[in-house]
Design goal:
This protein is an alpha+beta fold. Helix content is 45%, strand content 17%. It folds into 2 domains: 171 residues, Jelly Rolls, CATH 2.60.120; 113 residues, Arc Repressor Mutant, subunit A. Helix 7 packs across helix 8. The N terminus is likely disordered.
């Protein structure tokens, strides 16, 4: 798995099968990828930290997490995963669609609880740690779901759904939202528009006038909004996005480096090479050789 798989802000990757929309992934930062860029998807996500420490953000609120912690990400919420002080972090992703818990016809549970919890309409704690009363119970339920999916006995899906219902109940009754400064919904909506625009157009030349216009901001306000919201300038963020896309292409295609640079929005090879080495601490050619060696060695 690579960082670009998670790099699309409105993620296009299909995470779950249609007949039972539930899946798990085990990942390690930085072994599998340096970070998971800010993105969002329709599925609900539980991130369970297995080893080490790291940083996880939900709707731009950053949490420092360690082994045993769980982060709940409702549908449609912007989130990202990164390193903390150069440390590694192994974690499990549990991803499911809220429709997994629906009943046919009029459904009190769906209307009053499932949709509001899974969609973030009912505030619950994003960071589930040992100081919350629901932490131990939710951890046990996660472990049970992992065992069920590992054994895959007949009807295991019934038990998995039962565990998810219990997790929803615990989030509702014991996982009250912590006091925190939240970015308002209007700003988050604008940010999704901006990030989606970058995703679709990063290979082209994007002017500040062009991208600020897509969210009806002036140039000066856009630049200030982006820096204050993302903690990095728009130009720097766009360059990093293009470099990450180029890194993926170096490992997944046989294209020469000049073509890759051009396809990722860099019209000057020398500039691309300098930026790439600064970001990855190696040249594009070295990155390709080392990456392929690691793939063969797995």
């Amino acid at each position: 798995m690579d960082n670009i798989q998670y790099g699309s802000y409105r993620e296009q990757k299909k995470h779950t099968p249609d007949d039972f929309p539930y899946n798990t992934y085990l990942c390690t930062i930085p072994l599998d990828f340096a970070s998971v860029k800010i993105h969002w998807h329709e599925e609900v996500e539980l991130i369970i930290v297995k080893k080490g420490e790291g940083k996880i953000s939900v709707d731009l609120e950053e949490y420092e997490v360690k082994a045993g912690d769980i982060v709940f990400v409702p549908s449609g919420k912007l989130h990202s995963i990164g390193q903390k002080d150069g440390m590694s972090m192994e974690y499990e992703n549990i991803i499911f669609k809220s429709s997994l818990l629906y009943s046919a016809g009029e459904d009190l549970c769906r209307k009053s609880y499932i949709d509001p919890i899974c969609g973030g309409g009912i505030p619950t704690a994003a960071h589930i740690h040992g100081r919350l009363s629901c932490h131990g119970s939710i951890s046990e339920l996660v472990s049970r779901m992992d065992r069920l999916c590992g054994e895959r006995k007949r009807g295991y899906q019934l038990a998995v759904k039962g565990c998810l219902f219990q997790i929803m109940y615990l989030l509702l009754t014991e996982g009250g939202a912590e006091e925190r400064c939240k970015t308002n919904e209007r700003s988050l909506t604008k940010l999704k528009i901006i990030l989606s625009y970058i995703e679709k157009n990063y290979h082209k030349q994007i002017s500040v006038e062009e991208i600020s216009g897509c969210c009806f901001y002036s140039k000066s306000y856009f630049m200030r909004f982006f820096k204050e919201t993302m903690g990095i300038s728009f130009v720097e963020y766009l360059n990093n996005y293009r470099l990450d896309a180029a890194a993926k292409m170096l490992l997944s295609s046989g294209e020469n480096i000049l073509n890759i640079a051009s396809e990722c929005g860099f019209d000057n090879l020398s500039y691309f090479n300098r930026r790439f080495k600064k970001r990855f601490d190696m040249t594009p050619g070295e990155y390709r050789r080392i990456g392929r060696y690691r793939t063969i060695g797995k």
